[in-house]
Amino acid sequence: MKRYVVLIILGLIFLSACERETIIMPSEELNQIRVAGTATVKTSPDIATAQIGVQTFSKEIEPAIDENNKKSEAVQEALRQQGVAEKDMQTVSFNVYPQRNYINNKPEEIIGYQVDNTISVVLRDLKTVGRALQAAITAGANNISGVSFTLADPEPFRNEARVKAIEDARQRASSMAEAAGIELGKVISITELSQPGPIIVRAAYDKAAFENEVPIQPGELELTMSVEMVFEIPS
Q: What is the mean pLDDT of the chain?
């Protein structure tokens, strides 16, 4: 029994000593330097998108739908006249809602029907965006949202930003290595940290300011990419 007690005491003494001392295990990561690089590329948008809808209301469902159909077709024809291709117009929603008498606290009483028909439109000539939106409104559109400017093909700009982000990371690593008095070795890994998504700039418009066309400003786009690079530190 005393022998076991002695062994336990020795073990406790060993653990106590370890708590006061940092033990570093050999690892390949000790000979690495890890840095992040970021770059932003600015460019002008080349397409615009918008959600253009028609809302109608009638006490009976059929007149509400008929009116909506006529106005929706008129809106689409107006957009065609502005040079919008069929492939650039897509129906995104068509809904019929019963309208109930909540004002008089009678939700069971249907007082009419609201019909919504919304299309997503791609406008490829930025010079005609305001005129196209105004034409849609004149034809009967009364629900326009999500006006935005973006790129038809953002990949070349992503590639440019990605290359610049890698150059930024390499420069950071070189500066750190020089400051630390160590040599920078080969690249071990490169990881893209950015999550590529749509490049969008929102556009505001004021319905009260409508004259011949909606006032629109495309603005400028910024595309940012980030990478993480790991370099070897030669022994």
A: 83
Shortest CA distance to 149 belongs to which of 206, 80, 91, 198? 198
Which sign, positive or negative, has the C-alpha torsion 125, 129, 135, 140?
Answer: positive
Query: Is 47-150 CATH 3.40.1370.10?
Result: no
At the top level of CATH, the class of 24-44+152-199+220-235 is: alpha beta
Q: In sequence order, what are the residues at sequence separation of 6 or more whose Cβ sits closer than 8 angstroms to the Cβ of residue 52?
A: 75, 79, 118, 119, 121, 133, 136, 141, 143, 144
Report the alpha-carbon distance of residue 209 to residue 134 in Å, rounded.
11
How far apart CA 204 and CA 50 sit, in angstroms, is: 12
Residue 49 has pLDDT above 80, yes or no: yes
DSSP 3-state assignment of 169? helix
Question: What distance in Å separates the CA atoms of residue 32 and residue 54, rounded to the nearest whole number?
Answer: 60
pLDDT tens-digit map of 79-124:
999 999 999 999 999 999 999 988 877 778 889 999 999 999 999 9
Whether the Cβ atoms of residue 102 and residue 156 lie closer than 8 Å to each other: no
Q: Where are the domains of the chain?
A: 24-44+152-199+220-235, 47-150
Please tell me the pTM assigned to this model: 0.70
* Separation between Cα atoms, residue 226 and residue 195, nearest integer Å: 9
Q: Cα–Cα distance between 49 and 122 in angstroms, integer?
A: 5
Q: Which residues contact 93 (CB under 8 A, 6 or more apart)?
A: 53, 116, 117, 118
Q: Residue count of the chain, please give it.
A: 235
